[in-house]
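Follow-up to my earlier ticket, as requested here are the two runs.
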Amino acid sequence: MEKIKVLIIDDNKEACEILKEIISRQEDMEVVGIANNGKEAIQMIIEVEPDIMLLDIIMPHLDGLGVLGKLNKSRPKIMVISSSGQDNVTREAIRLGADYFLIKPIDINETVNRIRQIMKSSECSLNVEDSSMHRYRNNQNEFFEIEIKKIFFELGIPSHLKGFLYLKESIEMIFIRKELDIEMKTIYAYLAKKHSSNADRIRKDIRHAIESTWLRGNKDNIIKYFSEKPTNKEFISIIVQKLYL
């Protein structure tokens, strides 16, 4: 089995070494390089050809957004790590092609798990996704990614939870097919196949993400969306309707 090649890009050398140590312990990953500024990063991406890069936003010489802007279409997966959760930073990172966005401080073990999820999602997408999803991603991916990230950040959904990803993909699935009455068991089965899991596990992870958001999310924004704690289907349906507005 080939290891996932990870490139770390951050001007904090101590943080880089900690990340490198944890990632290097994983049997399925290896750190192929560390860059401490944007200019180094551009050259290193060409030289080491990583599968995924962990990219800090604030760096000398060329910041993370500058790095994203210089990458061509043949690029690795990109996990942006930032101390800022501001909408304009998030929107720009997503517009420039970021696959995932984490707010500091990060849980390193959860970050490692997220790397696996991103890479697994990439590998199986062609086998699982139908043609309507491909057409949507070609035409409307930028809109969806920007708006769903904005809504999730507004609500305060914990990004380190598996349910965060499953909620995003559930909403995307319904938004693409334009079927608000699609059965949840169909969604759970789809995600279970995609993530090599089972439907009950998917359901529980989504429920946990919603419960955690209800308890510890942004209360002022939550009440703008929900008058009471929603079920899994209610949560997803309301967000989809919001996207249609």
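Run two:
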Amino acid sequence: MYKIGRCDALFQCGDVTAGFPFSGRNRPEVCGHPLLRLHCINNITSLTISNQEFYVLKINKTSNILTLARPDLLGSFCSSTFTKTTFPPEIFELSPTYKSVNVFYLCDPFLSYPSSSKCPEIGPISLSENPEYHNTCRESFTKRELNMTHLENALRGGFEVKVNIDENACQECLSSHASCGFDQTFPSGVKCGPLYPPDADDIRRRCSASFSCGDQKDLMYPFWIPGREECGHPDFKLECNASFAELSISSVKFRILEVDYGSRVIRLSRSDYISNLCPLNAVSAPFEENVIPFAPATDMLTIYYGCRTELSQSVSTYVGEISCHDDVRSYYVTRNLFPLLSGVRGLINDFKGICRRNVSIPASRPALDTLERTPTPDNLKKALEEGFELAFNEDCSLCMISGGACGYNLISSRFVCYCDGWDHTKPPLLKNSDNSN
């Protein structure tokens, strides 16, 4: 069982700092509410609510008010991914000073609507505070906004939501020089525990042993499951079921296909692209490459969806067309070869403006080579299903060769090598390293 006394550390990412009731990075899950786990990628803090990722722009620790913004709504409004998100009322309270704006789209182009504008691919859109405003539009979603006149600026500025957690018990815990975490079995949800340093020998023994998850066996760093928080990187927590093991990065799920520490192979694939070239609401997921970089044989494939311009004349070895069973066109580009696309480079650079959205996906270079030689939907599916490889963390490789166990120091937010007879915060291999992996 994880010791509550290790919850005195704060979550830090960019300009955001958080303690109870949040967890994430150097704050294990037991330190915060299960719906309030923060993530940090490229110094940007994010929080997943009802399977929707939100950027956390600010946390007011006094009032427990979060300023959130949806990353998929930060660009052009017409290029947004329209989905409705529900905030669990038992913990989140939306500010009464904000309005719910219903956005209706795929509207009848022959009718006029108040507070409307036109998007290239989805036609007229209409804004209304009434969710039953009209039935001549086929789709809608709800968005809380501050300013209907400057919708895009309001979306970038975000909105406020209050976290309803009674912190009185936590304050009492802190005043007694103890540490507070979260436990749903306690009446207040707050569990109070003494402060003490981690047991280095216990951590080393735990992290030296491998574990199983789904169909994967003998797993170790950077992966972890509850109870092994100090044995893996915070961003590589696994979700296990009977068939496979997955991890979530920026609310995007990746499936583990293969892990072999002897041959130094870690192979993943995007779960939503297995047997599906056109998943709904797909977004790019930035990988934290300073933790585990891509292997040399991994490249990026970009798929552009909902393109309003006919580009079939530009289909070539490196540009292909795919069908998503709708009236608009979609294309893929093996973008590592952009310098060779002299004939269509200008057009490729304008893809983001021509197409409604794009998703960049890591893929195997050999699989992409096959796709370029034989550009078929089956080869595109195979390139996505075969996944991509990650390179091994070099510090971890040195640690394992020396007989140590790889892990993560939740206090210093750094990679650490747990070695027999050494303080785990100052491993012999890495004690002078500035590497924050």
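The only thing I checked on run two: The chain has a mean pLDDT of 76. Let me know what else you need.
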